[in-house]
Amino acid sequence: MRPLLVPFFISHQGCPHRCVFCNQVRVAGAAGSLPTAAQLLRRIEEYRLGAPARQLEVAFYGGSFTAMPRRDQEGLLLPLQPLLRAGVLQSVRLSTRPDAVDPETARFLKQHGVATVELGVQSLHAEVLELSGRGHGADEVERSVATLKEAGIEVGIQLMPGLPGDTPQRALDSLHRALDLAPAFLRIYPTLVIDGTELARRYRDGSYRPLSLGEAVALCKEMLAAAGQAGIPVIRFGLQPTSELDSPGVVLAGPYHPAFGQLVESELCFDRMCALLTGVPPGSVVTFGAPAGRLSDLVGQRRVNLQRLAARYGVTATVREDAALPPGVISLQWDGPSRHARLFESHPRH
Ligand code: SF4
């Protein structure tokens, strides 16, 4: 069982400047102050009491952890050391900028129980990085991934398709460069226009146009298929809905949807269902089989996939869960021989 996350949002701490799309305070609703040791320990104890059987993992999100002064990093990590030694805490994860990682920093993190670093990469295209005000290039990404891995730290990569200057092809190129770095996982957040950002100003003056929801789903479907082919999991698509994010006037534009990830998975399923229906005559009654947990992805929100199949192929389609199917495989039963398809071909790189 995965450990239970004990999250701490350290909004913009360590950030050398504001990237054009970013407003952590509006997104997460957390002020930019660091928790004290007492606050850290109190929150961990609350989680421990609430789920005594679960392993715990502390996560520091929303800032540039390794760009903070070292004494602030120590202020957050040192109080956790007795809990790590006692096994109350399993590990620590944090997010940071690619240009704020060097070998000495990576060793410091490793020595203090940090098991996973999530790098806010966003893009690996020079012009996109420039227009987004990141303040670093793609080389720093490649260097930081290598440095963290050499120190024995697991690396996750965050990407943001739809940034200024981005195109679907550039986003896919960035993805492939990221996959070449063999991260342990990806998070993919299509760019939203958040109030109080430089991007909001550009959106209002017409110099920036975000992806539509349909464009973002179509692009992320391609990204999911490519990541799956490389054997690298995408552990999250789209920002986690929060009361702050759902408040009026926070997301000004862009492909925000509270179940964005499911839209992407359903779209990929739809493609595979279409492929399975090749040569099946109109008027057929067909049943798709889904492995455990995949049924709703096949059906789609408000049964949209079944409706689209009826309109496109003239078939009456139903779905059923088939526990015998391996994960990632779907089946088709009809008058002819049964057919199977992988949601993606898997060729793990590591
Ligand atoms: S994207 Fe990351 S580095 Fe840029 S302002 Fe936001 S938290 Fe800071």
Automatic annotation (TrEMBL):
<keyword id="KW-0004">4Fe-4S</keyword>
<dbReference type="Pfam" id="PF04055">
    <property type="entry name" value="Radical_SAM"/>
</dbReference>
<dbReference type="InterPro" id="IPR039661">
    <property type="entry name" value="ELP3"/>
</dbReference>
<keyword id="KW-0479">Metal-binding</keyword>
<dbReference type="GO" id="GO:0046872">
    <property type="term" value="F:metal ion binding"/>
</dbReference>
<dbReference type="Pfam" id="PF16199">
    <property type="entry name" value="Radical_SAM_C"/>
</dbReference>
<dbReference type="InterPro" id="IPR032432">
    <property type="entry name" value="Radical_SAM_C"/>
</dbReference>
<keyword id="KW-0949">S-adenosyl-L-methionine</keyword>
<keyword id="KW-0411">Iron-sulfur</keyword>
<dbReference type="InterPro" id="IPR007197">
    <property type="entry name" value="rSAM"/>
</dbReference>
<dbReference type="InterPro" id="IPR006638">
    <property type="entry name" value="Elp3/MiaA/NifB-like_rSAM"/>
</dbReference>
<feature type="domain" description="Radical SAM core">
    <location>
        <begin position="1"/>
        <end position="230"/>
    </location>
</feature>
<dbReference type="GO" id="GO:0051539">
    <property type="term" value="F:4 iron, 4 sulfur cluster binding"/>
</dbReference>
<dbReference type="GO" id="GO:0005737">
    <property type="term" value="C:cytoplasm"/>
</dbReference>
<dbReference type="GO" id="GO:0002926">
    <property type="term" value="P:tRNA wobble base 5-methoxycarbonylmethyl-2-thiouridinylation"/>
</dbReference>
<keyword id="KW-0408">Iron</keyword>
<protein>
    <submittedName>
        <fullName>Radical SAM protein</fullName>
    </submittedName>
</protein>
<dbReference type="GO" id="GO:0003824">
    <property type="term" value="F:catalytic activity"/>
</dbReference>
<dbReference type="InterPro" id="IPR023404">
    <property type="entry name" value="rSAM_horseshoe"/>
</dbReference>
<dbReference type="InterPro" id="IPR058240">
    <property type="entry name" value="rSAM_sf"/>
</dbReference>
